[in-house]
TrEMBL record:
Domain of life: Bacteria
Designated name of the protein: DUF2125 domain-containing protein
Signal peptide: 1-24
Keywords linked to the UniProt accession: Signal
Presence of the UniProt keyword Signal in the record: yes
Length: 386
């Protein structure tokens, strides 16, 4: 079949497209092509259609030379893929179709600077999208990859992650992965983590919940937050208002925005909405463990445009292992070299009071003017910077 140039909208996060596929009606090839064009032209990616096959009511497209401009990076970059397979099925819901995507095992990230180029390996990177083709919006998507690897061909810098899952549903937004690592030149290890998970979902009263966790984090530094768990919620930031922000952020990531930039965009937009609503965010639980230290706490913060750091609030923390941390940073009378670089941390640690079961308790306040107060003692002045 002669190749036909079209503009399609599958992006760097095509792997993040998935929904349960339910075939209800036979779909004609031309109708499927029109839906694909309408969906994918929104996102400005060029590709060559190599084949289109109608099999048992499903239409299967194959595309080569798929090119997507990537944004949110330090320099211009482009994703290039061949042999991208797209399968479309009709559903038993009017005006909705399921679109399955299977990515090739190899791809490229092109850039002017060699250090920004990547050879991509994508094992079992696939998923699908439920699409409302009348309103031109996604209903849900989920996707996964057994593992992803990005290798820079000259300096041999690389990153990899296993078990990637990205999901957008009306009642859930999730990103998680396992066994990730990243390196500098010549594979010098710069960090690794056993597992990471971000989960946002609504509560019984339409409040928004955010759960974050990572385990097994390793960094080449003295302070190692190996395990972190955070559970938070906000009744005055309803899910009905947070959901469109999340949907936009996930969609932008699907269509070429760097994941780090997408996370920053989502965080900024949620902060803006929380500040507009005067919405307090409850820290229902925060747990941090690493290098013989354990901290467990809870608190509440409120987004405020007038606050020096965008928030003010309070956190009550019980610490196990104060002596280990004191050995690392010292005391106000005798700080270590590291402690001399962060005097507010030294003062804050020293301000602890005896807690339950051998813990040290810290009542930490972040004030609107930027001051940090620990158990009634100002350890950091937002105006003086010390």
């Amino acid at each position: 079949m002669p190749a036909r140039r079209i503009v399609i909208g599958i992006g760097v996060s095509l792997i993040s497209l998935c929904a349960t596929s339910v075939t209800a009606f036979a779909l004609e090839t031309q109708k499927a092509r029109e839906i694909m064009d309408a969906i994918l032209m929104q996102n400005g990616i060029s590709a060559t259609e190599m084949s289109a096959e109608n099999s048992n009511g499903a239409v299967i497209f194959t595309y080569d030379d798929v090119r997507l401009d990537l944004s949110g990076y330090s320099s211009a970059r482009e994703l290039v893929l061949d042999d991208v397979r797209v399968t479309m099925n009709d559903t038993d819901i009017a005006n909705q179709v399921d679109i399955g995507v299977t990515l090739p095992e190899r791809g490229k990230m092109l850039a002017e600077a060699t250090s920004d180029q990547r050879e991509l390996t994508m094992r079992k990177a696939l998923g699908s999208l439920r699409w409302d083709h009348v309103n031109g919006v996604p209903v849900n998507f989920t996707g996964s990859a057994d593992f992803l690897i990005g290798d820079e061909p000259v300096t041999r810098k690389h990153w990899l992650m296993n078990g990637l899952v990205i999901r957008w549903m009306p009642e859930e937004a999730r990103i998680s992965w396992q066994a990730a690592e990243w390196t500098g030149p010549n594979r010098e290890k710069l960090g690794s983590v056993k597992s990471t998970s971000f989960l946002l979902y609504p509560g019984e009263n339409d409040e928004t919940h955010l759960d974050y966790a990572h385990d097994g984090l390793w960094l080449p530094s003295l302070l190692q937050p190996r395990t972190v768990r955070i559970k938070s919620s906000s009744t005055d930031l309803p899910w009905s208002e947070a959901r469109p922000i999340l949907q936009k952020g996930f969609n932008d990531m699907m269509t070429g925005l760097a994941p780090r930039a997408a996370r920053r965009q989502i965080a900024n937009d949620l902060w803006q909405k929380a500040a507009d609503n005067g919405a307090p965010v409850k820290i229902d639980e925060i747990y941090v463990e690493g290098r013989g230290l354990e901290a467990l706490g809870k608190g509440e913060f409120i987004a405020q445009k007038a606050a020096r750091y965008g928030f003010s609030g309070q956190l009550d923390v019980d610490l196990i292992g104060r002596e280990r941390l004191q050995d690392l940073i010292g005391t106000p009378q005798s700080p270590t070299l590291l402690g001399a670089l962060v005097p507010f941390a030294v003062d804050g640690l020293a301000a602890g009071e005896p807690g339950k079961q051998g813990t040290t308790n810290y009542d930490v306040e972040l004030l609107r003017d930027g001051r940090i107060v620990v158990n009634g003692i100002t350890v950091f002045s937002g105006t003086s910077g010390s």
